[in-house]
Amino acid sequence: MTRHSACVIPLLFAGLALAQPPSPPPIQAPEAKAPLLFVRVQGPEGMAVTFLEAGGGKAFDQPVTVGLRPCFVYRLKLSGFPAKPNVNLYPSLEVRGTLRIPPQLKAADFPAPVVIDDEDVERALSGVLVTKVITLEDAEKTSVGLQFAGQPAQVTISPEEDPFAYARSVGRPILIVRLGMREPDKAEIARLGQGMILYPNMKALPPLSPGQKFYALPPELPVKGPLDPLEECLRDGGDNGKPVYIAEGGQLEGLDPTDTVAEYRDSSGRLKLKPSNTVCLCVPRFLAVRHETPAAQFEMTKHPGAIRGEKHQDQLLAQEKARKLRGLDEMEQLRARQSLQAAVANKRPIRVENICVLQGIEIDVGLAAYLGSKVALTLREEDR
Predict the structure, then answer these.
(1) pTM above 0.70?
(2) Whole domain around residue 326: which residue ranges?
(3) Which of 48, 233, 275, 293 could form a disulfide with 80 if both were Cys (CB 3.0 to 4.6 A apart)?
(4) What is d(CA 201, CA 2) in angstroms, rounded to the nearest whole number?
């Protein structure tokens, strides 16, 4: 936080009474949109990465960094896993956008990380679709992901959550990675085209061939215009966030840690504020939003009829009925036990009536009052 106070010099500020200080210049946000999104693919030691294209592909050892055109879907082949040498995975990369950086910077110096770890491989081999949405976090907010040494930040959400909605809530999604085992057929590879990937040691890409189709959504809506390009920026200086003002008593309010404001008095002695220029520092911060879609959920959602016709489903239904019957038996036993307890409880009032002979006690008490008198003898004669 920087605060400058200027001295009151009548000769220097004599002209300020006639003219107000000019308004602060607009934020100098990055305007140059990189034509390519550079991606760094990294995995377990020994993994090979093959980028599939029409007419063949090129293989590299991990890690490898390439440039991808936005609004296209790319297919990869991952092989050479040390624990599973005969296993291949075929992830897809869907590029949704690129970085916005100053002209003096290079987009290749800020590649989006695509990290495939051992857990991702095991989950994909078990039939789980692993999705990672790479998003640019707001540089002025605290990261929501966990970051370890040498790895990008990552957060894992539950299968019930939407990874795309979560990624949009924390930043701007630019890349979608889907990791699975299905090998693309020849028709799919032919639709990928050629000249779409800037490989290492390449200077530029050829122009797009006529008729090349876009497979991903455009990163910007043509009606609304460009999105706010400040995810890559850490703003320093100026007056950002809550406006700075002079409160009652002369103290400053609304001054954020990154604000830079000059405080001075004009020729009339009034206290004035002047914010400095805002500088945007390019610090792209990537976050991987990881999501798993179990195959069982997918099959039951997409093919309920097929599953209903399988035998194992009937077995499950039979087992479920058996559980219900077993539960009924247990309930009947429980009811029988409860009824016995009720019968025992019903006997208690009878026992109490037999013990509490109130009439006999009243007779004994009444006779005690007449002991040794003629009345007692008369009563005894009548009883006889």
Answers:
(1) no
(2) 311-383
(3) 48
(4) 45
